């Protein structure tokens, strides 16, 4: 009789754990960030409160090594679409990576995308920034877009070439930038 009670107890424990996991998934996403586990806001509830005629979805991605690893970090910033017409645009930026990121829009440097000087702190000069999205589940500047979260910024852009980038220390130097065209 004791083995049967133990197996029923184990079954009850498994059911309780599955129910708890389901509740966590429904209530939000569970994400890891530099070894810690935290709950982040569901992307469906994290949207701009007003939409413009033109919306650019920007994905932020990271994979690979990192500071302690020998393998290089693979960082990417991908806008969709990569070009728009002049006027008002909302950049909706989603962090699909494991690291915190930020998003800036700057005029294209004379030497082209990815050529900005990087300081000893691993950052670029942001003085020419036209706008920033770095608030988790909010608009504008903040402390970074956390894993699984989204931020946005609405700008009015004239025709020209722009550089979209992440300026968390060393992310730009490691390739987290993209060209963007406004016609």
Class by alpha and beta content = mainly beta
How does CATH name the architecture of the largest domain? Answer: Sandwich
Assigned CATH superfamily of the largest domain:
Cupredoxins -  blue copper proteins
What is the gyration radius calculated from CA atoms?
21 Å
Distance between the termini: 77 Å
**What characteristic shape results from the CA principal axes?**
globular
How confident is the prediction overall: mean pLDDT?
A: 80
Number of strands: 12
> Strand order across the biggest sheet?
4-3-6-10-9
Order of helices and strands: HEEEEEEEEEEEE
CATH topology of the largest domain: Immunoglobulin-like
Instruction: Work out the strand percent.
Output: 35-45%
Number of domains: 2
Instruction: Give the CATH level 1 class of the largest domain.
Output: Mainly Beta
Tally the helices: 1
Description:
The chain is mainly beta and 183 residues long. The protein has two domains: 39 residues; 140 residues, Immunoglobulin-like. The chain has a five-stranded mixed beta sheet with strand order 4-3-6-10-9, with no helix packed on it. The relative contact order is 0.20.
């Amino acid at each position: 009789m004791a083995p049967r009670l133990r197996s029923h107890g184990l079954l009850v424990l498994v059911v309780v754990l599955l129910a708890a996991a389901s509740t966590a998934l429904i209530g939000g996403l569970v994400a890891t960030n530099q070894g810690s586990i935290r709950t982040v806001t569901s992307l469906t509830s994290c949207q701009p409160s007003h939409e413009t005629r033109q919306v650019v979805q920007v994905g932020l991605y990271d994979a690979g090594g990192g500071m302690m690893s020998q393998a290089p970090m693979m960082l990417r910033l991908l806008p969709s679409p990569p070009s728009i017409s002049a006027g008002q645009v909302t950049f909706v930026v989603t962090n699909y990576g494991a690291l915190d990121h930020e998003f800036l829009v700057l005029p294209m440097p004379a030497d082209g995308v990815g050529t900005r000087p990087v300081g000893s702190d691993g950052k670029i000069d942001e003085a020419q920034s036209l706008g920033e999205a770095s608030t988790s589940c909010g608009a504008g500047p903040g402390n970074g877009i956390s894993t699984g979260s989204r931020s946005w910024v609405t700008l009015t852009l004239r025709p020209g070439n722009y550089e979209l980038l992440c300026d968390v220390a060393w992310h730009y130097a490691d390739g987290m930038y993209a060209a963007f065209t406004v016609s």
